[in-house]
Specification:
heterodimer, A: 211 residues, alpha/beta, TIM Barrel, two-stranded antiparallel ribbon, 9 helices, 9 strands, 19% strand, B: 114 residues, alpha+beta, Alpha-Beta Plaits, five-stranded antiparallel sheet, 36% helix
Chain lengths: 211, 114
């Protein structure tokens, strides 16, 4: 199964590609505005609006322009609105914001993947790291109970922020997920689906134009 | 006669093979300090003592920057996570990439292909 990292925030194209080859990463979605060429890169957008209406508008406006749309959930209200927006692919909740059972159920219904950002742990220390991980475990519990889709992302800001699949699996296991579901969550399924959507033949789930 | 533990009392172990990707070459002492600190931060003193973490000095390959860590089977994920959380050793940025987890050094070497 191919291994994708859907949450690379910044980075130099060549350095990222070189490191991806060393770590066995098959593809990555980049949220930076810089132009990156290469087979493994896919352009995504991270929406960081703090107003729910503006966020919804931005998601709908960018749906056809980007392969992956991620929303940064700055608080519980934004998390809820993001899970209610069908066009959202990934919700990246802020480190200490809650995901409750209702949000997780809505995320499942709208197929919004709830992301667990490894960089939040990587760049925090001691007490903060403990608090962030504890909240992540609670969020993961709700996600598991509701059967909502999830995703583990590196949140890398340079090539040294990337991690291999093996590390993601360990992180997932510590959050309470099993190995198979982590592998599925980091596979190319999302990008394959979105590429189909961007091709112009896609109308709605299960309905495609066959020429 | 030397008193030894009977084989039935010997505790099970797992060997984690890792490769260090870094800007500058890292020595064994720097590596040991970084791994120990990270494990202490992540699982705590009790966790480290229960995990029985050992960094194998004689298997550290400085030219290839590859090494081995042994721990108990239950603590493999915690140790892998603590390795993943190391992002800097000295002034050099680093990434630990876990290659294999094996039950014996021999099988680990076969799997890694040495």
């Amino acid at each position: 199964m191919a291994f994708w990292d859907y949450g690379v925030k910044e980075g130099d194209g060549n350095a990222l590609a070189g490191m991806a080859a060393k770590l066995g990463i098959d593809g990555m979605c980049i949220f930076s505005s810089s132009v990156l060429s290469g087979k493994i890169f896919v352009k995504g957008i991270l929406i960081t609006e703090k107003n729910p209406e503006m966020m919804k508008r931005a998601v709908k406006k960018n749906r056809k322009a980007y392969a992956v749309i991620a929303v940064s959930g700055t608080d519980e209200k934004m998390n809820r609105i993001a899970t209610e927006t069908e066009e959202t692919d990934i919700l990246i909740p802020c480190p200490e914001t809650k995901i409750d059972f209702v949000m997780a159920k809505t995320a499942k219904k709208n197929n919004v993947r709830i992301a667990f950002d490894f960089s939040e742990l990587l760049h925090s220390t001691l007490v903060d790291r403990g608090r962030i991980f504890s909240q992540m475990v609670k969020n993961a519990q709700c996600v598991r109970k509701a059967g909502a889709p999830f995703m583990i992302i590196s949140g890398a800001e340079s090539e040294f922020g990337l991690r291999s699949q093996s590390e993601f699996i360990s992180f997932g296991k510590l959050l309470g997920f099993d190995e198979a579901s982590v592998k599925k969550a980091t596979s190319s399924a999302l990008i394959d689906e979105n590429r189909k959507r961007l091709s112009g033949k896609w109308i709605s789930p299960g309905v495609e134009v066959d020429k | 006669m030397k008193l030894r533990r009977p084989p039935s009392m010997r505790e099970s172990r797992r060997y984690i093979t890792f490769r260090l990707i870094s800007e500058l070459p890292v020595s064994f002492s720097e590596l040991k300090g970084a791994v120990t600190n990270s494990a202490l931060n992540w699982v705590g003193e009790k966790g480290v003592s229960l995990a029985n973490v050992k960094i194998l000095r004689n298997l550290w390959d400085e030219s290839r920057q590859e090494g081995w860590i042994s721990c108990t089977p239950k603590s493999v994920d915690d140790i892998k996570m603590s390795l993943a959380l190391i992002h800097q050793i000295g002034d050099s940025k680093v990434i630990f990439r876990t290659l294999r987890v094996s039950g014996t050094i021999k099988s680990g070497k076969e799997k890694v292909g040495k």
